[in-house]
Amino acid sequence: MTTQPPPVAPGTVQVWSDLLCPFAHVALHRLRQARDRLGVPVAVEHRTFALELFNGPHPRRGTDTEAVGVGQVAPELDWRVWAEPDDRYPHTVLLAAEAVHAAQAQSLAAGEAFDLALRRAFWTQSRSIAHRAVILDVAAEVRDAGTELDVAALTHALDTGAHRRDVTADHIVAQTDAIPGSPTLRLADGTAFSNPGITVEWAGPWAAGYPVITSHDPEALADIVRTAAPVAAGT
Questions:
Q1: How far is it, in rounded angstroms, from Cα 235 to Cα 226?
Q2: Tally of CA atoms within 13 A in the half-sphere of 158 that contains its CB
Q3: For a designed S-S bond to 66, which of 22, 119, 125, 202 qualifies (C-beta 3.0 to 4.6 A apart)?
Q4: Given 3-state DSSP classes, what are the helix, strand and coil percentages for the chain, each rounded to the nearest 5?
């Protein structure tokens, strides 16, 4: 497998992220906001930056403190600390990442809608998106909300491991300097932006302290959308 990032199609933003990364949730939210405001047809292509393959199982304390810290700059995302029993906490989201690849194989729009629904299921609803049944329930909800998503095909892809290789291939690339972290946004011209618009420091030990956002600029995502747009866009 290659260690080079896959090419980005014109008019597309390639987003490398982990489903449990709060900074990715904010970046994708602001990207959608900017796209809607500017009225430009920029597509999103999801790639997996699997934090658990670098750091081990996701710790609940880490995501709880991140929800509180990062939620202060984007409260409209309706963040919640984990509200279900500890034994339901999703310490791994590799199967969910595989499912995003499967949805995206149907269309970029299906992949984007499904990815967003999984993030909301975790960050707002405390649903264990590690579990196959929960993943498929979320997929059915996306379909029922009007997105063209073939849940039967997605189920078959999960059960056969059809896109497991995609997650593995992404991890090989994610270990290189080309993808410095989650989120990293790449454009067709090869430029890359790591955690665009946000600078952060960590107070105390990782997963036991809390993130302190020292600056944030929502317009950073608008600039990325303008650059990615297939035609010039005004403000």
A1: 9
A2: 22
A3: 22
A4: 50, 15, 40
CB 199 within 8 A of CB 26: no
CATH superfamily of 12-228: Glutaredoxin (3.40.30.10)
Query: pTM above 0.85?
Result: yes
- The span from the CA of 70 to the CA of 119, in Å, is 14
Gyration radius of the chain's alpha carbons: 17
192-201: list long-range contacts, CB under 8 Å, 24+ apart. 193/220, 193/224, 195/23, 195/27, 196/27, 196/220, 196/221, 196/224, 197/27, 197/30, 197/221, 198/23, 198/26, 198/27, 198/73, 200/23
Cβ atoms within 10 Å, residue 44: 22
Under DSSP, is residue 97 helix (H, G, I), strand (E, B) or coil?
helix
152-179 tens-digit pLDDT: 999 999 999 999 999 999 999 999 999 9
